[in-house]
Amino acid sequence: MKFKQREQWQANWFDEDYFEKGSETGKSLYTRYRYLPERTHQEANAIISWCGENGFELLPKHKIVDFGCAKGFLITELLARGFDIYGVDISQYAVDNVEFGAKHRVKLVPPITTDTRIIFPYWKTLAGFDFSLADFVIARDVLEHMDESTLDETLHVLGVCSTHMFICIPVGDEESGFFIDEMNWDTSHILPRTAAWWYERFVSMGWHIRAHTNRIHGLKVNWETKPYGFHFFLIASYGVPALRHARP
Predict the structure, then answer these.
(1) What is the pTM of this model?
(2) 36-245 sits in which CATH class?
């Protein structure tokens, strides 16, 4: 069955109904989207370990950004470990409900558009952080919400203002949708594509693939019986060399 194409979402789509009553309203899979310390701890360990095994050791000195951080659960976890982490999200509701300990590290930003690429430095100008270049960006369950044009703009902007990025994304194909059927229930999921398609897209936008896999122990544990439903990437940006020395 052909995947039903959906219109591009607006930022206000990600409201209280999306996070707290998603199943009831048909907006998402979420019901009472809340902080689960043990799971968040496990996920943080998994990301740090896998990236370290593949050549990028995450250190407290690094500037880290959780891109699409929602309520900031991962930020709360990594702050407690001494990491210098920040977060951005387009959802006013999510940012207003960030865990208290992470509130000062999370900023509301507009979705990236064609005009955004003329804004540099992105983190300092648009998010209001005190740095220009992020050493590591985490983008979990974010890119599938974008149409192809917005995706390319986002990858371009992040490629200029970041050096490495960890990506977790549900995969599928354009005809039948996401391979995990439940991923199709979220009406803001509009870009079902294969792992190979994502690989080629990252490369075409100037990123270097350092590692990728369909399974990381400790991540997406609820979907362990469907090991090909998600894909994980560690990518590095060639970026703009002259700007690599711009960070204070």
Answers:
(1) 0.92
(2) alpha beta
